[in-house]
Amino acid sequence: MMESVFRLPARTLAGLAVTALAATALVAVATTTSATAATGLGQLAAAKGKYFGTALANNHLGESAYATVADREFNSVTPENEMKWDATEPSRGSFNYTGGDAIVSHAQAHGQSVRGHTLVWHSQLPSWVSNGGFNSSTLTSIMQNHISNVAGHYQGKLYAWDVVNEAFNDDGSRRQSVFQTTIGDSYIATAFQAARAADPSAKLYYNDYNIEGVNSKSTAVYNMVKAFKQQGVPIDGVGFQAHFILGQIPSDLQANLQRFADLGVDVALTEVDVRMQTPADSTKLATQSGNYNTLTKACLNVTRCVGITVWGVTDTYSWVPDVFSGYGAPLLFDDNYNSKPAYTGVSNAFGGTTSSPSPSASPSASPSASPSSSPGTGKACSATYALVNQWNTGFQSEVTVKNSGSAAISGWTVTWTFPNGQTITQLWNGTLSQSGANVTVKNASYNGALAANASTTFGFTGNWSGTNGIPSSVNCTGA
Q1: What is the pLDDT of residues 423-444, one digit of tens each?
Q2: Residue 467 has what pLDDT?
Q3: Is the separation of the CB atoms in 182 and 136 below 8 Å?
Q4: Which contacts qualify for 405-408: CB closer than 8 Å, 24 or more apart?
Q5: C-alpha span between 402 and 410 (Å, rounded)
Q6: 310 Cβ partners below 8 Å, 6+ apart?
Q7: pLDDT by residue (tens digit) across 54-111?
Q8: What is the per-residue DSSP string for 259-305?
Q9: What is residue 284's predicted lDDT score, i.e. its pLDDT?
Q10: What whole-number distance in Å separates Cα of residue 271 and Cα of residue 135?
Q11: φ, ψ for residue 232 (rounded to 5)?
């Protein structure tokens, strides 16, 4: 996030990214016709092959309205503060994952991906790091150990990491952080190498603000990424924070995203908000809606723009008023969790309807039936296949795995055969193996153990052609 954000304002950001996915079909049975099935922004984004997420603050998860809107609207989570250095390693060699684990567990329970934020940053550092007086060798070892422990703790559970955050000044020079002044330019590449070693499956991002348009800062970042790709430094993406002022979306946003994508990396809008001078009025809100529409379309028009994250669910908890005096109302939902015109701007960009949901709307439609799948051999478990969404030649499905026995299981394997040759393109919360039409999914490292009657879910996107039939049976074997 922007440097000024982390004066730790009293009003912290909110945001739980949870997909609002309505079950439109269940294993070979009835299909729901509820109009709520396509309201969530996460679902609309998934239909376009993107994610739409939000920042999440663990201390707001217990608030009903907050959780209801977040669970309905978003399909990606970025922990706001819970994975930063001061939270995860407050004293040297002493690690605390309580807040981050809570967010990851919540996301796993709702089938959301998680973006880790952030491993190396000049701000929110404990004083033992920033004022430790370490030499280059020692600070390098400390940084590598921090990354190894934190990224290693979440290995296999996160979609991506913001490895290094805000390492450049607006003029394109390197920010004189403790890492830069002690280690030098090499610390960024070293951080990425350590992150890859700690979690080989996570996408590794550099993240920064004021790089959304072509300027001195974005060009300096561009040159660094280009050099990293040439040198074999493991960088997979660039995050554009996108903290905008009303009416000031860069006209070259899309072109700049494409410029980076052409280097062979993914791009994402990672901390989006559009602040305005308060109080808001209809004219400002209409302009804000247009701004959100524009930035969403910019991402949609760049193939390697994988998704958008807004920096919070509701204006109530936005960081903006505490940092920018006289400014606020930057997000999609107001202080009462009512959707604003900006919501419609995003929805329309994704091809949704213009109707806006109320805070009490149900996060999913109720299926008319939910039959059990065929049990496999071994310890008892069952699996239920749900077709969540379908578009053109793509679709999204979710499978619920339940321990249907009286004893705990330590793992599970789910199998089925697609009737029309569908292929899975991306799967989360499980390990995939597909051979032709035959699919096998085994538990991930964190969701295999299920107590009696407990359940978990995994989800996936795929391609279809001609007909997208539901598997006639889905088998589950417990271990």
Answers
A1: 998 777 788 899 999 999 998 8
A2: 87
A3: yes
A4: 405/379, 405/380, 405/381, 405/452, 405/478, 406/452, 407/379, 407/452, 408/449, 408/450, 408/451, 408/452
A5: 12
A6: 15, 52, 53, 54, 55, 271, 272, 273, 331, 332
A7: 999 999 989 999 888 888 899 998 999 999 999 999 999 999 999 999 999 888 888 7
A8: HHHTTT-EEEEEEEEEEEESSP-HHHHHHHHHHHHHHHHHHHTSTTE
A9: 95
A10: 33
A11: 80, 15
Structure tokens at 382: 């069952």
Residue with tokens 């939270």: 87
Question: In a 10 Å sphere around its CB, with 0-12 CB exposed, 13-18 middle and 19+ buried, how is residue 435 labelled?
Answer: exposed
User: Which stretches of the chain score pLDDT less than 50?
Assistant: 3-38, 354, 361-377
Q: What is the pLDDT of residues 145-201, one digit of tens each?
A: 999 999 999 999 999 999 999 999 999 999 999 999 999 999 999 999 999 999 999
Q: Percent of the chain scored above 90 by pLDDT? A: 67
Q: Please, which residues have CB within 8 angstroms of residue 141's CB and are 6 or more apart in sequence?
A: none
Rg (CA), the chain: 22
Name the token pair of 133: 């007086």
Say whether pTM exceeds 0.85: no
> What's the rounded Cα separation, in Å, for the pair 14 and 441?
34
Q: What CA–CA distance (Å, rounded) separates 423 from 390?
A: 14
How far is the C-alpha of 456 from the C-alpha of 405, rounded, in Å?
A: 15
Give dist(CA 131, CA 75) in Å, integer: 39
Q: Residue type for 74, please?
A: F
- Please identify every residue annotated as catalytic: 166, 271
Asked if residues 383 and 41 have their Cβ atoms less than 8 Å apart, the reply is no
With a CB cutoff of 8 Å and minimum separation 6, the contacts of 283 are none
Number of other residues whose CB lies within 10 A of the CB of residue 219: 15
